[in-house]
Design a protein that fits this description.
The chain is mainly beta. Helix content is 8%, strand content 16%. Bound molecules: zinc ion (2 copies).
């Protein structure tokens, strides 16, 4: 039996153990480092907010931002 479906590489996040795939990052500017795979959340958590010294929780535009400086959810 041959599977013609496109094979997708999966990685295991070294931070939380979550499974990560390339397609999870299609819509955002983030690349998986195969030697040091981190899911989106864990890679963002390694960054510092652009506007203060808190840990970043998300990406806003091209900046890493914390909850205080992120976009309003409304
Ligand atoms: Zn993770
Ligand atoms: Zn901040």
């Amino acid at each position: 039996m041959q599977d013609d479906e496109e094979f997708e590489v999966t990685y295991e996040c070294i931070g939380c153990g979550d499974e990560i795939t390339e397609s999870m990052y299609e819509h955002i500017d983030h690349e998986i480092n195969p030697d040091n795979p981190l899911c989106y959340k864990c890679s963002v958590a390694q960054q510092t907010c652009e506007f203060c010294d808190k840990q970043a929780t998300r990406v806003y535009g091209e900046n890493y931002v914390c909850d205080d400086h992120g976009p309003d959810p409304d």
